[in-house]
Amino acid sequence: MQLAHHISGQPSAMLKQQSKLLIVEDEVLFARAVMRRLQKAGYECAHVESLQDARTIFKQFSPDIVLLDMRLPDGNGLDLLADLVVKNVAVIVMTAHGEISDAVNAIKQGAIDYLKKPIDLEELLLSVQKAEASAIQSNSLDYSRQRNAHAIDGVELLGDSPAMQSVIMQIQRIAQLVAADTVPPTVLISGETGTGKDVAARLLHLSCQVKGQNNDKPFVHIDCASLPPDLMESELFGHEKGAFTGASATRPGLIEAAEDGTLFLDEIGELPLALQAKLLNVLERRMVRRIGSTKERPVPARFIAATNRDLHEMSLTGSFRQDLYYRLNVMSIGMPPLRERAADILMLAKHFAIQTSRRYGLATPVFSTDAITMIKSYDWPGNVRELRHQVSRAMLLSQQGNITELDFALPMNRLLLDANQHAANTMLNSQATLDEVERAVLLKVMAESDNNVSRAARKLGITRMTMRYRLEKHQLNIKTEE
C-alpha cells in the first residue's frame, strides 16, 4: 500500500482547496502515472492495489473522490462501490475493453462517471475536476437543507414595548390566515440589520405549524447574499443531470426542499434581476421547473422574504423588480430598531446574560448601576444582535457575574477613555448626563481634527459613518470636511 503526499513547490493555501483522491488500481505503472498528473494539478493522492487495502486506508485518508478499477486481485470494484456511495464519496470507475456492462452497473449504483482503458490522462483530469465541482455543489445544497434541520422549538420574540407587541400581534394575525387547503400569503419582513428578522420568520413558521397541527414541516433558510453566484440558480431551482457542465446527477432545488413548509429568503434584495423574474414566476404559478427539465413541479411552500434595504426605493431605480416587490409585499412586518424599544433593552440584556451564564456554568449575573445606565443610554446601532454579543462578552469578562460598565466594549466607553478623560470625569462628577458627555467629547475631537470627520473618527476608533451618525444625533451642524 502506497500513500503519496503533496508534491513540493505547491502553495499550501491552494492545496487545501483541492480534493483528496484515492486510486484503487492494481496496475502499478499506470497508477503512478495517474498520481503524477493529479499531483501536478495540486491534488493529494493515495494509491492502493486491492479492495482490502482500500477499506483499510479509507478512515485514515478520508478521500473525496475515488478512482476505482473494476477488476482487482481480491474482487470486483462493484463490491466497494456501495460503501463509498453511502459515505457520499464521488466515484469514477475505470474499465477495460469488454467491461462496459460493469460500468453501466456502476453508474446505476451511484458512480458519477466511467472511463474506458486505455485512459487519456487529460481526459481523466477533466473527469476528476467535474466530480469535484459536483461534490462541492452537492455538499453546498445538503448544508443549506440541513442548516435548519435542528428543532427550533422555543423560538420567541421578547419585548413588552408597544412596537414589539405590535409585531407579535401581526405574526399571530398572519398565522390565523393560513389554512391547509389554501395558498399561504407571501410575507415580507423588513428592518435594520440585527433587529431579529430571522427570528420573526421562524416564529411565523412555528405559529403556522401549530395552526395546521403538523409540527414536522421543514424550514429552509436561504441567505441570498451568501449564495455562490455561479450556483445560485441551481441551488434555488434545482437541475437535471447533464443540464450544465458538472451536473452529473439530478438535484432538486431548495424551493422543492421546503416541500409544504416554509422557504425563508433572507436578504432578498441581493437576488440578481434574472433570478427575480424566475422567482416571480414561481410565486405567481406555484410551479417550479428545474434547470434542463421540461417538467414542472407544484410548490406548496410558504414564502417569507426579509430585507434590510428599501425594496420600494430599489424598485423605483430599477435594481429590484417592481412586480416582484408587490408580489412579496402581500403581508408585511416591520421589525423596529432597538432604539425604538427602550422599555425592552434592560430586559433583553438580563435575558442574554442569563443565557450566557447557563451556557458556561457561570454565576448568576448582576448588573451594576453604571452598567444599567450605559445600557439604557447607548443607541445600539447594531440592534438586538449587538446587544446580545456585548452582553455575552461582558458576562464572560465579569468577576463572579458582577457586570460593570468596564466589561463592555461599546464605542461610548472608548469615547470616555480615549478622548479627554479629565474633562469627562469632571462632567460626570457634576452629574452631567451621558448624552452631554458624548456631545462635549464630539465637539472637542472635531475641534482638534479641524472639523475633519474622517480624522476625528480615527481618533475615536469608530467609522466615519458612525461619526456622522453621532454628529447628527446631537444636532451638531458643524461645517465638516471629509
Automatic annotation (TrEMBL):
Residues 20-132 form the Response regulatory domain. Residues 157-396 form the Sigma-54 factor interaction domain. SUPFAM superfamilies: CheY-like, Homeodomain-like, P-loop containing nucleoside triphosphate hydrolases. Keywords: ATP-binding, Nucleotide-binding, Phosphoprotein, Transcription, Transcription regulation. InterPro entries: AAA+_ATPase, AAA_lid_NorR, CheY-like_superfamily, Homeodomain-like_sf, HTH_Fis, P-loop_NTPase, Sig_transdc_resp-reg_receiver, Sigma_54_int. CDD domains: AAA. GO terms for biological process: phosphorelay signal transduction system; regulation of DNA-templated transcription. It comes from the Bacteria. One of its GO terms (molecular function) is ATP binding. This is Two component, sigma54 specific, transcriptional regulator, Fis family.
